[in-house]
């Protein structure tokens, strides 16, 4: 008799456990479905970036293949969303030449960008005796002699989206801004200090998330 009662209690506990388990699954499904519906309705758009200007304080290529450079760049970011905020948890800015990094990374402080808001950052990025690949170094020296060097201002980081009280997971952010730096008599920049030249660019950047 006691064995039958024990089996009965075990079966009852199993049914209760299954009900709780499926109740949790259904609840999570409803929550995820609600989030997806809100996400689809709001249609979040990635932020847009503009490279406003670049100030060159140093740009010295020395043999055999080293580059010492010092820039200040101004990046303007805009959140195009009406109901979605953007958390910039991490954003590192640096400069590359022909896909090779030629400065150290400079971290921009974490920030929040509200609906339709603009953020403006002006970090200094520099590199001292940074080794450049030989084939890139020759191209760099030749471009500098010709009076125009095309570099790319890059910002890599992680962002989160905020919809009401909901905050998403982290997404990778990649920003690429081409910038022409002029040298010699064709220099189109404005002298702003001793050996410093500022280039007003207002150059749209490519953004991927």
Could you describe the 3D structure shown?
With 209 residues, the protein is α+β, with helices and mostly antiparallel strands. It has 2 helices and 14 strands, in the order αββββββββαββββββ. It has helices at residues 2-42, 134-146, and strands spanning 48-62, 66-78, 85-97, 100-101, 106-108, 111-113, 118-121, 124-131, 148-163, 166-167, 171-182, 190-193, 196-204, 206-208. The strands form 2 sheets. Strands 3, 4, 5, 6, 9, 10, 11 and 14 form an 8-stranded antiparallel sheet that branches. Strands 1, 2, 7, 8, 12 and 13 form a 6-stranded antiparallel sheet that branches. A hairpin with a 2-residue loop joins strand 12 and strand 13. The longest helix has 41 residues, at 2-42. The mean pLDDT is 89. It comes from Abrus precatorius (Indian licorice). Residues 77-177 form the Late embryogenesis abundant protein LEA-2 subgroup domain.
Number of strands: 14
- Could you tell me the radius of gyration in angstroms? 27 Å
Give the biggest beta sheet: 8 strands, antiparallel
**What is the H/E order?**
HEEEEEEEEHEEEEEE
Class of secondary structure makeup: alpha+beta
The multimeric state of the shown protein is single chain
Helical coverage, percent range: 25-40%
What is the average per-residue confidence, as pLDDT, rounded to a whole number? 89
Q: Distance between termini?
A: 66 Å
Q: Strand content of the residues, in percent?
A: over 45%
Our count of helices gives 2
| Contiguous runs where pLDDT drops below 50 for at least 5 residues | none
The dominant shape is elongated
